[in-house]
Amino acid sequence: MSQPDFPVAVTAMLTARPGSEARAAELIAGIVAATQRHEGMLRYEAQQQLDAPRNFTFIEQWTSGATLDAHLATPELLTFRAAAAEVFEGPADVRLWRLVK
């Protein structure tokens, strides 16, 4: 699939394993901080659900599909993914979006 050359938004929802909420928040804070330096990043933040604190959602916006792909290949994201496998249940629910004008 060819990558779009327009801004791409991402939501990624993850559920921490029971008792792993603090470690999950620590991992997420680290990747959010590291990603602030990635080229093409317009928005990159994470939220923890108030009434279900095992649930986390990333909210991202990238200048293009190519900059998103570059982010996904960075050493810090690969390290995050390896550590996340031990902390989160199952795969993330990742969705790609485009702005409706």
TrEMBL record:
Gene3D superfamilies attached to this UniProt entry: 3.30.70.100
Cross-referenced PROSITE patterns: ABM
Name assigned to this protein: Antibiotic biosynthesis monooxygenase
GO MF entries: monooxygenase activity
Keywords: Monooxygenase, Oxidoreductase
One Pfam family from the record: ABM
Alphabetized InterPro entries for the sequence: ABM_dom, AI-2_Isomerase_LsrG, Dimeric_a/b-barrel
Oxidoreductase is among the record's keywords: yes
Domain ABM: 8-101
Organism, as annotated: Nitratidesulfovibrio liaohensis
